[in-house]
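Record type: ASSEMBLY
Status: queued
Input:
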Amino acid sequence: MTEAHRPVAEEIADRQNRFVAEHLRRIFVQIYRMVGSVEEAQDLTQEAFIKALQRGEQLKDPQKAAHWLSRIATNTAIDFLRRRGRLSVCDLDDVAEPASNPSESPEEILLRSERRAMLDEGLRSLSERERVALVLRDVEGLPAEEVAARMNCTQATVRSHIANARIKFRKYLQRRKL
Amino acid sequence: MTHPKLEDLALYAGGDLSWWARRRMARHLGVCAYCRREVEQFSAERTWLEDAGADFPQGVSWDRLAAEMKANIRLGLAAGECVGEVETPPARLAWRTVAAVASVVVVVFCGWLLQRPEPAVPAGWVLEATPAGIGVVEDGRGLTLLHPDSGTVLLSVGAQGAMRARWVDTETGQVTIHHVYAH
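Status: finished
Output:
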């Protein structure tokens, strides 16, 4: 690399770092909800960002960067689930460090912790397709047609997955409350 | 009163029913308190799911994880750039490709010249059709397949050195074909 190219390369690297810092947490959580494992979500998040940054020229409208990245992340996770053919059990027990907001009271921390555990367990009670459809529709808030496009199936099929997932999730929550 | 299916109530709560089905459902919900409660519960669960979904996974140290991921992403991008630079085709590769393709073309052409198809009928052999039958003759000697004297016999000659006689037996209706090849 010549001296003349260095500032341009540094500028690109800075822009990429800002892009990663801005979206990393959201994309990691999105992928984690779909695959249910921290380690796998970590690998897939990295893969999604590398793909996105390498294909940066495909992004026509910078205003849609978040949506574009989210789509790459979803596709990366769905491809992974297809390759694997099943969902793995969550391996959160391996990670012992508690993460909490210092401004939260102990009661709030406890409630949040319970909610996270319920969500993880509830999502694990669903089939892979139900889980992906529910996460994309109800957690990510994508319209059903967009979910169908990402999952590469018909809208009728996606609606069926969403309905089944909502009913199963309700049954799970009812069991937990008993 | 007939209640809608639970699946439809779940879809209605998320706004996922078609326009017409939504209208019908709204009419039913206007008079059915039970289904209204079901829909409200589904809506509350969706809100819960949306809020809980935004929570960070339990027991994960985000700072450590984020630093690790950022480093790996930078590493991945750098590795990608290296691979990209190596994969850039040098100019002489085009000449090599042309030379390789030209060699293959020459070999195929020579092979075709050497394996050119021979004339189908050997010299001195004659395919012959007479009122009595069809056959091959060489130097006045030959073999003839006879067909019946009566009835119509259809004769045809193939471009590859073959002759065919076809007729229908007037008594049995059976079709017979004689096919004689001269090679």
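Annotation: The mean pLDDT of chain B is 83.
Annotation: Helices of chain B lie at 6-13, 19-31, 33-54, 62-87, 91-114.
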